[in-house]
Amino acid sequence: MPRSKSARCAGWDINLPPRDLRLSLHARIIAVLTMVLGCGAILLGFLAWQSTSLAAQQAYDRLLAGGTIQIAENVYLQGDVVALDPPVAAVATLSAYDMVFYKVVDPRGVVVAGYDDLSSRAKPTAIRQGVVIEDGRYQGQRVRIATLGRQIEGTQMGGWATIIVAQTVNARTALAWNLAAKAFLIIGAMSVLALLAVGFAVRFALKPLTRIEQEITQRRPDDLRPIQASPPLEIRNLVQSIDDFMRRLSERMAATQRFIADAAHQIRTPLAALDAQVEVLSNMPPSRRTPETIDRIRGRANELARLTGQLLDHAMVIHRADTAKFAPIDLNAFAKATLATGVPLSLPREVDIVFQPSDVSPVIPGDVISLREALGNLIDNALRHGAASRLLVVVGAGEDEAWVEVLDDGKGFEGTPSELLRPFAKSLASTGSGLGLAIASEVAKAHKGSLSFEREDAMTRVRLLLKRQEFEPNGMS
């Protein structure tokens, strides 16, 4: 078996398929057309042989029939005996191409001339209407036999005489092969010309693919603009798919770059503060090290740990938006379980927590992990920065959508919805990383839903709206 080639790039081994398994589109088209033209040439050759054989046979059958009629005209009645004037001209015409045998039988059945053992299967009624020609064998050779009846009129010798003429088929076979060979030559030449023309046409038609290939090859890795070369109609959808893929890849790369830049900026601040607190503590004499200083350091460490966790959660949510497979989720049971795990065992204040399920128990297609992170962040935000004494988690459902609402009696958010949903944006009424609402918004978009805010009756309402429509297995509708 052929050995596959391998290349080494950036420390990774890349196995390339054998060359014979990587046929070009040009070679495949030529191979298919070669088979089609070959089959067509064989079929045309067969039809040409049939036509030439028929033409040769008809031409020689006319000569054979004419010779038989000439011999019949030379049969006459002499007295009471049927006689034959030797048909020199007719025999000479027929024997110029093949061997000729004949026989003349009078009305009594007596052979008056020719070969006694020459016979015909033609019926008497048929030969009285005209010449009957058939295939046969005589003296071990293939022959064509012509049979004709002639009426003899006389007082005693009345009736029908039978004239049988046989001719070998060598000349007509040679003529058929000669005509067929010329037809084969024409068919072969036309097939070769057609194949050359197709090869040229395919190469010309595939030139736009070469231009597209060159354009993509010459681009920098960060150049994800749409392809500029005009594609043929047949591959326009393919090029549009490539452009759409590059657009989504560009958006994902831009989001990743923004996330990395924001994460680096956000992590740098608590790290600097933590370093400063540790420096202050290390320079203090042991007698002056107070629990307040240690608590501040512990708080900074907890803040950094929470920020790191949310950063990882945000990256995970962005990744799963296009890759996670959706499964049916009972929203009542899901929201109840998330609330139970999202509320800590102890809180710094007394908070009344209420769960209100939907009456219809809606089932939605979704990613359990991403939705748990989204709802968990909403509950955590409400407990940390909102709820003064009351927190509600409400599940609702409509005909085409379902939702989970987190309500608290805190002061609410300050800022526009676009500002609140931007990563690392913070409400003026709260402290934190500003990632919780961004994570919930990303999850809502991945589920074809939305995240909204509302302030009503001294309660802040955050609604996670989800569609109840069917989704494809890869998570896209």
From TrEMBL:
It is an enzyme of class 2 (transferase). SUPFAM superfamilies: ATPase domain of HSP90 chaperone/DNA topoisomerase II/histidine kinase, Homodimeric domain of signal transducing histidine kinase. Pfam families: 2CSK_N (PF08521), HATPase_c (PF02518), HisKA (PF00512). Residues 262-470 form the Histidine kinase domain. Residues 203-254 form the HAMP domain. Its EC number is 2.7.13.3. It catalyses: ATP + protein L-histidine = ADP + protein N-phospho-L-histidine. The chain crosses the membrane at residues 29-49, 183-206. It comes from the Bacteria. InterPro entries: 2CSK_N, HAMP_dom, HATPase_C_sf, HATPase_dom, His_kinase_dom, HisK_dim/P_dom, HisK_dim/P_sf, TCS_sensor_his_kinase. Its main location: membrane. This is histidine kinase. One of its GO terms (molecular function) is phosphorelay sensor kinase activity. Keywords: Kinase, Membrane, Phosphoprotein, Transferase, Transmembrane, Transmembrane helix, Two-component regulatory system. It is found in: Membrane. One of its GO terms (cellular component) is plasma membrane.
